[in-house]
Amino acid sequence: MKPMGKYSALTVAMAFAAVGSAAQADAVWDRIAERGKIVCGAIPNDKIGSWHDRESGQWEGYEIELCRAIAADLSTEMGKEIVPEFRETSWKTIVLDLQASKIDLWPGMSATEERKKALSMIGPMYDLAFCGVNSKSFTEGATWESLNDPAVRIATVTGTSVETAFKEGAPNATHISLGEYAEVTLAVQSGRADVMGADILRCVNVRAAAPDAFGQITVPEPLKSMGSSAGILKDADQLAEWLAVWAEEKRASGAVTEIFMKAFEAAGVDIAELPPEVKF
Questions:
Q1: Cβ-Cβ contacts under 8 Å for 1 (sequence gap 6 or more)
Q2: Gap between the Cα atoms of 239 and 38, Å rounded
Q3: Rounded CA gap, 31 and 16, in Å?
Q4: Of 236, 245, 279, 242, residue with least CA distance to 259
Q5: Nearest-angstrom CA–CA distance, 252 and 242
C-alpha cells in the first residue's frame, strides 16, 4: 500500500473537519442570529401561561415572559439585538409547528415520551408543584399521609402525571379518575370528591375563578413536583446546550420565580393564594 501523499492527507483532514463542522451545525441558532429574532409560540387563551390582552394588544403570561428573557440574553450571547416574535399556536399543533420551523421555541411543556421522540426537550425550565383544591367541607391535605385514607376521595384526570403522583403519594385514598378537568372540578363542587388533584397553576386558576365554590389550596408535604421543558427542533444542538445552562442559572437565581410572579399579577391572580413553599 502506497503512503498517502501530502495533498491527499490534507484533503482527508479537510474532509474530516467538514464532517465535524456539519455535525455541530445548528440551523435554528443560525436562523435566529441571521434574522435577529426568535419566534416563540403563543396560545391566545391559556391564562397565566400565555394569552393575548385585548386592551393592550400585547401577549402576556409566563411563557411569553420566558421567551422575552431568553431573547434578551441571546442578544448578549450573539452580540446583536434578538427580538422576540410571537406566533399563535395551540396545544394540538405546537409540536407540528416546531417541527415545521413555524416557531423556534415553546418554553414550557411536559417532556412526555412522545414529545421526546419528536423534539429536543430542554430543561426543566421550571417546576410545578402538585397540589389539591379542597371542597369547602374538606380541611385536610397538608401532608400526603393525611390524604392516604380510603375515606378521602381524590379526583384527577385519567392518564396524567398528576394522577400518577396522587396515586403514589396516597395509594390508600379513593381515587376518582375522570376524562377532563371540567369533570374533576364539577366532582369537587358537587361533593362527589373531596380534593381536585392538579398542578399549582391549575389549582390557582380554579380557585381564582370560583373562590366561593371551593375550599383552600393545599400542597401536600413532602412537596412533589413535575418539571416542564422547552421544546425545540431536534438537532438544534447549540441552542439546546445554551438553553440548558440558561434554565439552570435562571432557576437558581430566582429569576424564573420572578417571571411567574409577574404573570400572576398580569392575570389578576392574588399571589396570597400561593402557598409559601411553592417555588418554580
A1: none
A2: 11
A3: 25
A4: 279
A5: 16
Per-residue DSSP letter, 220: P
pLDDT in tens, 165-222: 999 999 999 999 999 888 999 999 999 999 999 999 889 888 888 889 999 999 999 9
Q: Is 42 helix (H, G, I), strand (E, B) or coil?
A: strand
| Chain centre distance of CA 252 | 17
Per the listing, cell 412526555 goes with 112
Q: Grid coordinates in use for 94?
A: 405546537
Distance CA 2, CA 247 (A): 54
CA distance 165 to 223: 11
| Exposed/middle/buried for residue 8 (C-beta within 10 Å: 0-12, 13-18, 19+) | exposed
Q: What 3-state DSSP class applies to 129?
A: strand
- Give me the domains of the chain, ranges plus CATH numbers: 9-125+228-273 (3.40.190.10), 128-225 (3.40.190.10)
